[in-house]
Amino acid sequence: MSDTIAWLAGAFVGGLIARQLGLPPLVGYLIAGFGLRATGAEATEMIERFADLGVTLLLFTIGLKLRLTSLTEPHVWGAAGAHAFIFFLLSLSTLLGLGWLDLPYVRDISPVSAMVVAFALSFSSTVFAVKVLEDKGEMASLYGTLAIGILIVQDLAAVLFLEASLGKAPTLWALLLLALLPLRRALLWLLEQSGHGELLLLFGISFALGGAQLFELVHIKGDLGALLLGVLIASHPKASELAKALLGLKDLFLVGFFLSIGLSAAPNLDMLPLVAALLALLLVKAFLFEQLLLDFRLRARTALLCGLSLASYSEFGLIVAALAVKMGWLSADWLAIIGITLALSLIIASALNARSHSLYELFSARLRRQERPQRIPVEREIDPGNANAMVIGMGRVGTGAYDSLAQDRGMQPVGVDADPQTVARHNAVGRHLVQGSATDADFWHRLHLDDGHVKLVLLAMPALSENVFAAEHLRKEGYTGTIGAIAKFPDDEAVLRAAGVGQVFNLYAEAGSGFAQHVCEARQAVAKAAA
């Protein structure tokens, strides 16, 4: 126990330093693991258990947000399949070429062993990509949902490979899992009755971990089971609330995952040339994703950001390496080689993703020249119609603002949200919404505000950085109308005004004032009716 506490304290220090340097904390966790491994430390049983729990809860929360229809899109399964095949061939050629150059650890590698390593390198890290997307608040963006779809296709292929390699075919008892479908209504009833506090959290933990164990009993990978169980209840309105309730616990357990990766590697200096060569392939991986997505008629920004979010090697590589060592296909040194390469790939990808929007702005002119003339429907020009007001961010605050403008002010608002499900839900009840991400610089190019119809823009997104980005780009595009934005803290107001926001609404301060005004007006109405 004392070792586990010490390792977690080391992870905290590493994460704190990384945050101060403007990098995601997970970079600090990885470096802390490397530092501890250099002192001879090893991952404790509790750290490994934390890692397993974190991955299971992560896949369960992915399932809660997943729409299976997204996997049927050609640009999802097509890009995933084409990338896996091409990158496998590139990696295999690289490994055999390095062996021909007499590089250590690959000079005597057999074609079969090289194929196993190349297969492992073709996957991207699901844990890393989801963590980065959550930290940036872009899980619901087009490139975020596209990246998740590609990762799920990869994960399904990985599960099939493991099942085939281990010879662990599902037992006949696995057919009983189909009983979950008729039990779905009962499960949704339990979710509904769980309320909003600790019972909801307990339901999520029990359902995710217990369900994963149930899948393991019939020889189906528990992580895949957790993902499918999340999908099973994803359509319920409380699914998003459950995902938020699990967020802190999931992130805590994932610290163990990133820490264990660093603790798993025991490097030698003669491994560095091979690791450097594999890291060079990482840039090829991101570039290949970008080019394939452009071929599937997506915009350059979507293709670049998706490629960067997938620019990592996968924890699956360690699993394949361990299996290959057990089968005698690879030497034990390959565990350290792939572990170091994986950890460094996450550090490089973290730095790139932390600056992904800046990188696009820097190279946007060149990147846009690579776009195809025809685009998929969700990437075409955006027409707000005859709207004279716009609400960006259609959560509870944005929805209330939209309804007030339409019903109390007699205006014709248009709502904007990055989540296609949110857009469809609002349009179904009569509101006018268009899909778009306000943190997408190209969104403002695609949105036609130059006719002067839109006089008012309300920024109702939860993150300060998102509202600041939107305000700055509105002014950059020459918008001269009124911009209003929400703020949570007094310090936010000055930042928003500096970005071009004319009116700032402090949610907490104004909520109290509005509450008192509402009660007083209702009291006066009752008194007048009684008189």
TrEMBL record:
Biological process (GO) annotations held by this record are: potassium ion transport; proton transmembrane transport
Q: Pfam families, from UniProt?
A: Na_H_Exchanger (PF00999), TrkA_N (PF02254)
Q: Which terms does the record give in the GO molecular function aspect?
A: antiporter activity
Superkingdom of source: Bacteria
Cellular component GO terms held in the UniProt record: membrane
- The UniProt transmembrane annotation reads 46-64, 76-100, 112-130, 142-164, 170-187, 199-218, 271-290, 302-325, 331-352
Report the membrane topology from the UniProt record.
Answer: Multi-pass membrane protein
Q: Does the keyword Plastid apply?
A: no
Q: Does the keyword Ion transport apply?
A: yes
Which residues does the UniProt record annotate as the domain RCK N-terminal? 390-506
Return the InterPro entries for the record.
Cation/H_exchanger_TM, Na+/solute_symporter_sf, NAD(P)-bd_dom_sf, RCK_N
What keywords does the record list, in alphabetical order?
Antiport, Ion transport, Membrane, Transmembrane, Transmembrane helix, Transport
The Cation/H+ exchanger transmembrane domain, residue ranges: 10-349
Task: Say where the protein is mainly found.
Answer: membrane
Q: Where does the protein end up?
A: Membrane
Please give the family membership noted in the entry. Belongs to the monovalent cation:proton antiporter 2 (CPA2) transporter (TC 2.A.37) family.
Official protein name in the record: Kef-type K+ transport system, predicted NAD-binding component
What organism is this sequence from?
Thiorhodovibrio frisius
Taxon lineage = Bacteria, Pseudomonadati, Pseudomonadota, Gammaproteobacteria, Chromatiales
